[in-house]
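Thread title: Can someone regenerate the structure for this chain?

I was given the following input by a collaborator and told the matching structure tokens would be attached. They weren't. Posting the sequence so someone can regenerate them.
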Amino acid sequence: MDIYQKLDEKRGWAAQGGRLSEKSAKLLAGKLFVRDRLKLLLDDEPDFEDGLLAGIDKGVPADAVVTVIGSIGGRQVAVIANDITSKAGTWGYQTFIKITRFQQLAFDLKIPLIYLVDSAGARIDEQKLCYLGRRAWGNIFHNQVKFSGAIPQLCLLFGPSPAGAAYVPALCDVVIMVDKKATAYLGSPRMVKMAIGEDVTEEELGGARMHCALSGLGDVLVQSDEEAIGVARRYLSYFPSSYAQKPDVSAASPKAAAVDLTKVIPHNQNVPYDVKVLIEALADDGSVLEIKPLFAREMVTALVRMGGRPVGVVANNSKVKGGVLFNDSSDKAARFIWLCNAFNIPLLFLQDISGYMIGSSVEKAGIIRHGAKLLSAVCEATVPRISVMVRKAYGGGYLAMSGAPTQPDAMLALPTAMPALVGPEAAVNAMYFNQIAELPESERAAFVARKREEYGADIDVYSAAADSMAVEAVVHPNELRDELIRRYDAYSRKRAEAFEKRNPVHPV
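Best answer:
Regenerated them for you:
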């Protein structure tokens, strides 16, 4: 065998991974092989691959991780992809070196970094080489934090990501999880049983659906590897390659059919409606990508395009829990705002908010802390920011949803808007409590109804526009989309200014 045949043989052996073994075939069941995932993810063949021959001396193809530079939508990206067929995708010393070097390369090139995660975690038999010390597995997380907000970091979770490795998805901007395949947990079911005596299945403990609906770790739940890759390609289309650029504005196309929004938004503030219908009507056709649709559903966060321009939408959904703000919905919105602000994506707030949830249970759970987190994110945002008062805009919830005192670029309102410190029910109860108590019980309901009607009549969006200039414009619902497109076009010319400081001290 000559030296070139030897090269071809070694490269071929490394590229096939371990998928020919019976054990690896079981691990790959129902999934795509790592290099087949790359074929779907990238426009074409990778531009180049680093570290293909790592691990060859110990019989571990590519040392269980594939690192390539390629293109998505004509734009370069870096990909770090676990190979579950090669030593179960575990991290060894060469794996750690490859991952950290590629993270640094992505940052140096200022290109998005995509993690295709399918790994049984760190190798205990190599812990002496890379657990302790300044050059260790923990450098992976250090890099993720350091590069956060500088370049987009995506995680596609196809399989396991246990123990410390679970922080790879946790530290990414977005986590796309494959149902019934992806898992993430700090301790396995066997470890949980041994440590605390709890019997729990892997799916219950750290399954994709649990994380997307309950814990909030997952952002998008998909049903297959192919769907995960499709969502990732679409997600990236809204983002620039780094914080130093603005997202691309695509050619705008007219809406196929206009929706009469006067028929969508109920005049009666107590009648719920699905705000997703409003978002679809305002966005370019087929451009809505909802983030965390299964988590804290009273708040909707979505990436859309308006006139071809990427926009991040934060909206109260009265159809779920009345759209009231809870701990999780506050966290969900805050993180989405930080994401959009980091990468120069303008923000749109659709307000229909009666306030934060109240009561002893939410107070004990820290509703004030979580609410302050959302308020911090709103006030820190320097991207173009427009708020629309759709219906209710009450109290602290109004402020948290980018009310006028938080200095949005524009505060717009629809004729259905109802701005007030508190709604009629709470206001009348507060102002007339003693008087109501003194009335005969037979007269109380009529008195309360009359006072609520009087109070409601005094809540007038036109007064807000005329007297306090809290509202820049009152807009007809069917004219709102065009108004927003024109305003974003104007506000996109502004230069974002930030206070000079090391970093804010965020509420936790």
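The mean pLDDT is 92.
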